[in-house]
C-alpha cells in the first residue's frame, strides 16, 4: 500500500462526477472520509448528486464545469482550492460516446470527431493543466487518475472509431504524464483506470443530451445510443455482452490507488488473448488482426 493510506480529511475532485462511474467514485472516496468536489456539465444532475452525498454524511460541493473549456476547468481548480485549500486526488473521468456503431469512419462528421476528442482527450489535458501545477506547488502526496477504456486503451473495436481512438490517446498521454512526474516528484502518482471488465452500466449511452452547441451538426443522428448500440460495439469485437456496475469500477479504483498500480484494469481471459494477439502483430511486424 502506498504512503497515502489515510484518505480522511483529504480532497478529491471528480469530473463527470454527477452520474455513472464519476458518482460511484465520489461515493467510494467520500465514504473513506474525503472531501468531494463533484464537477459536471449538467446542473440538475450535479445538484442531485451533491444532495445525495451530503445526505450520506459526505462533505461535498458541486461545481459546474465543461471539461472541453480550459477556462471552465481552471475555474473548477480555483473553487476546489478556495473551499478545501488542497487537492489530493484528481479523477479526470468525464467522457462521452458518439452514436457511431452504424456508421463508417469516413462518414462521421468533423463535429463528431471534435466533440469526442474535446471531451475524452482535451478534457483530461485541461484537468492536468489546471491541477498538476497546483498539486506540485502545494507539495501534497497525491494521485491523478485518468479514465480510459479497454476499447482503444488496449485494442480498438472497429465499430467505435472516435471513442476507441480517443481512449488510445488517453492511454498514451497518461503514460507520458507518469514518466514526467516520476522525474519531477515522488509524491504525485499517476493511474490509468479501465472501467470493466465488462461494459459499464452508465449514462454514457445518453451522452448526446449534453452535447454543446458548438459541436452540434446540422444533420443529426438519433440523439441517444441504446443498449442495442452498445451490444453492436461488443459484438463487433466478438465479446460476450455483460455489464459491470459503476460501483465495481470505483472499488477497483480505490484498491488500485492504495496498491499504487498504474494499470487499474480488471482482467478477463478473452481480453488477455486479444491484447496478446495485438502485441504479436507489433513484435512480429504482422498485419493487424481484424475482429
UniProtKB/TrEMBL annotation:
CDD domains: SDR_c. Keywords: Oxidoreductase. It comes from the Bacteria. Coiled coil: none annotated. SUPFAM superfamilies: NAD(P)-binding Rossmann-fold domains. Transmembrane segments: none annotated. Belongs to the short-chain dehydrogenases/reductases (SDR) family. PANTHER family: DEHYDROGENASES, SHORT CHAIN, ESTRADIOL 17-BETA-DEHYDROGENASE 8-RELATED. This is SDR family NAD(P)-dependent oxidoreductase. It comes from Zhongshania borealis. The lineage of its organism: Bacteria, Pseudomonadati, Pseudomonadota, Gammaproteobacteria, Cellvibrionales.
